[in-house]
Amino acid sequence: MRTAWPILLALTACATAPHASQPSSCLIRDENLQPMQCFDFVGPQSRAYGPQTCREMEGRPEYVPNLSCSDEGLVGSCTTGAGSDTEVVERCYRDPDECRARCKRHAGTFAPVAAAPSP
């Protein structure tokens, strides 16, 4: 029985970890349950640590396995670790200037979203 314990522990970890090819994200909402930020865990290593990373975020984080962040209402995004195992894309749903500043602090690449033309 003593040798079965590490195997059981490893199987449990594998069963609960997100699959490296499946999308996963962490959605942060405000007090009115409106989206403020969402983080797409793109790289395989960032996906593996996604649930833990999400739990450690401030605000009201909600880990969302098997779904990417929504583009609806997006004002900008920030990519860190582009093309690497640790790539993460932060999607911002308000205050593009603050999003840009956070992105700069984390050495990311900011991409603004153009506002829709008014009719």
What's the total number of strands? 6
Mean pLDDT over the full residue set:
83
Biggest sheet statistics: 6 strands, antiparallel
| Terminal residue distance | 71 Å
Helicity level: 25-40%
Radius of gyration: 17 Å
> How much strand content do the residues show?
25-35%
Number of helices: 4
Name the helix and strand elements from N-terminus to C-terminus, one letter apiece: HEEHHEEEHE
- The SS-based structural class is alpha+beta
Strand order of the largest sheet: 3-1-2-5-4-6
| Unreliable residue runs | 1-16
What shape does the CA trace take?
Answer: globular
Describe the 3D structure.
It is built from four helices and six strands. A hairpin with a 7-residue loop joins β4 and β5 (88-92). 29% of the residues lie in helices and 28% in strands. It has a six-stranded antiparallel β-sheet. The relative contact order is 0.17. The termini are far apart. The chain has 119 residues and is of the alpha+beta class.
What's the SSE blueprint?
Elements: H1 4-16, E1 24-29, E2 35-41, H2 44-48, H3 50-55, E3 60-65, E4 76-80, E5 88-92, H4 96-105, E6 109-112
Summarize the structure in short.
The protein has 4 helices and 6 strands; from the N terminus they run H-E-E-H-H-E-E-E-H-E. The protein is of the alpha+beta class and about 120 residues long.
Keywords for this structure?
alpha+beta, single chain, 119 residues, 6 strands, disordered N terminus
